Amino acid sequence: MSEAINTEKEWKFKINPWITMIPLMLSIFMFALDETISNVALPYMAGTFSISHNESTWIITSYLVASGITIPAVDFLSKLIGRKQYFLLSITVFTIASILCGLANSMPMMLFSRILQGIGGGGIMPIAQAMIFEIFPKEKLSSAMAIFGLGVVMAPIMGPALGGWITENWSWPFIYFINIPFGILALYLVQKLVEEPPYSRKQKNVSMDFSGFAFLALWLLTLQIVLDKGNDADWFNAEWICKLFTISMLSFFAFIGIQLKKRKTGNALIDLSILKNHNFVVGTAGQVILMGVMMSSAAILPSMLQSLMGYTSFLSGISMVPRGVGCLLASVIFGILMPIIGARPIIISGLIILSIGGLMFGQINTNISLIDIALPNFVFGLGMILSMIPMANVACATLRNDQQTNASGVQNLFKNTGAAIGTSIATTMISRFSQMHQMMLTKNLVDTNEVYVNKLNMLIQNFAQTTDISTATHMAQAQIYRMLQQQATLWGYVETFRYFAIAAIFIIPFIFLIRENIEHKKA
């Protein structure tokens, strides 16, 4: 360990870190963009492959599962072949898989291609994040992390808008083909501009933790199936969900047990000793919740606009643009304030702003326009960056450079899991709240309710102009019921957005657990 520390102190990066940042951010943006760019194109893919909408969601989840399984193995694979070589390999696999996704003519081929794309992409984010922490001196790290966070958050936000535009103006395969030139450019720039310090080069006598990897894959795969299909199967009221969840939890505990046992011999897939770092644990836990809020909100807002208000895939994607503007402004604010006031006040302010954005979303109705979505989206993006980026800075700022790759892998594993769980919880909440409000609203559809009777009679009179009274009555009742369902579904979304606000406030007390006076030091 002392040898690694001495090597770290002796090594000096020769290339300007801002220049090195270019290929790293290009790779990060490409990977993060593909997390959401497929969302608005799913109906088109379902038609191409002749599958149902529910089956088409595997196009998204297969990517997330594959990348999630790969992330914890990043540290091991970096030691096995060298970190820079593994980074280049990840970009190559991701780019080739993107070509295969665009060429896919069946669902099995698409799933294979997306899994391969996830395997390639899983190594991009942790390595790039670790490199950024290494190449920048501590006085410039806050500015670098602002740009890093902007890319991580902006890419998933831009995904639906870009995917919708490409799908409507060209066709869905081009949402994958656009990765080709950027992937080739990233490969060239990484080869030329990214240096490899001694502690990240290929190491001898590195052995693979096959048992740990097997239980990790089983844990994440079964968990993702439970999260994806749980709501449709009524969760734990379904016996097969209970069995699959049991397998998932047993696999998780087996994975943790194996890692703790093999840590003593140095052959563990991931080094869980990183969890002894107080700030890393607090910062990572906060980011897990924020990732759940960010990814689930990015998924349900376009869905709400399409299903309730008839927006096209492109317009629903455009609704996310103001959030990106908020992220951009927050990045500038963070870069200015971080050296002056430190991380904690910025994080708390960001969480409060994020909560306000959630409450603003909780006031929407079906009569709003796209402009009315802009302000709460802007506030949401502003709060997201101001809370998430300094939190990431706090989590890793007290780690040594030789710990960064492993720490980034552990952190991104938990963040991916948080995003999956958050999205699943949000979907379930919308369904449950919609059912609850539908039951409440149905109680008002009685003959003693003057408003209901007047509305029904008015509709009957309108329909009676073109048909008989019996049919007109049936048509009027059906229209009122559709209006009721629309209002109930809207309330499902409204209630869910309000819980996003509660989640942001919930994190604030834990921010005070961050240890002071060490936020910008290297342990």
Describe the protein's architecture and organization.
With 523 residues, this protein is mainly alpha-helical. The protein has two domains: 13-203, MFS general substrate transporter like domains (Growth Hormone, Chain: A, Up-down Bundle), CATH 1.20.1250.20; 291-523, Growth Hormone, Chain: A (Up-down Bundle). 77% of the residues lie in helices and 0% in strands. The protein has 22 helices and no strands. It has helices at 2-10, 17-33, 42-49, 53-56, 58-70, 74-81, 83-103, 107-121, 124-135, 138-169, 174-177, 179-193, 210-229, 239-263, 278-309, 313-318, 321-341, 343-361, 370-396, 404-442, 450-464, 469-511. Helix 17 (321-341) packs parallel to helix 19 (370-396).
- The appropriate CATH architecture of the largest domain is Up-down Bundle
Radius of gyration, in Å, reads: 25 Å
Number of domains: 2
The name of the CATH topology of the largest domain is: Growth Hormone, Chain: A
Mind summarizing the main beta sheet?
Answer: none
Shape: globular
User: By helix and strand content, what is the structural category?
Assistant: mainly alpha
CATH class of the largest domain equals: Mainly Alpha
Fraction in helix: over 70%
**Average pLDDT score:** 86
Unreliable stretches (pLDDT < 50, length at least 5) are 1-8, 518-523
DSSP, total strands: 0
Query: What's the number of helices?
Result: 22
Distance between the termini: 13 Å
Q: SSE string, helix = H, strand = E?
A: HHHHHHHHHHHHHHHHHHHHHH
What fraction of the residues are assigned to beta strands by DSSP? under 5%
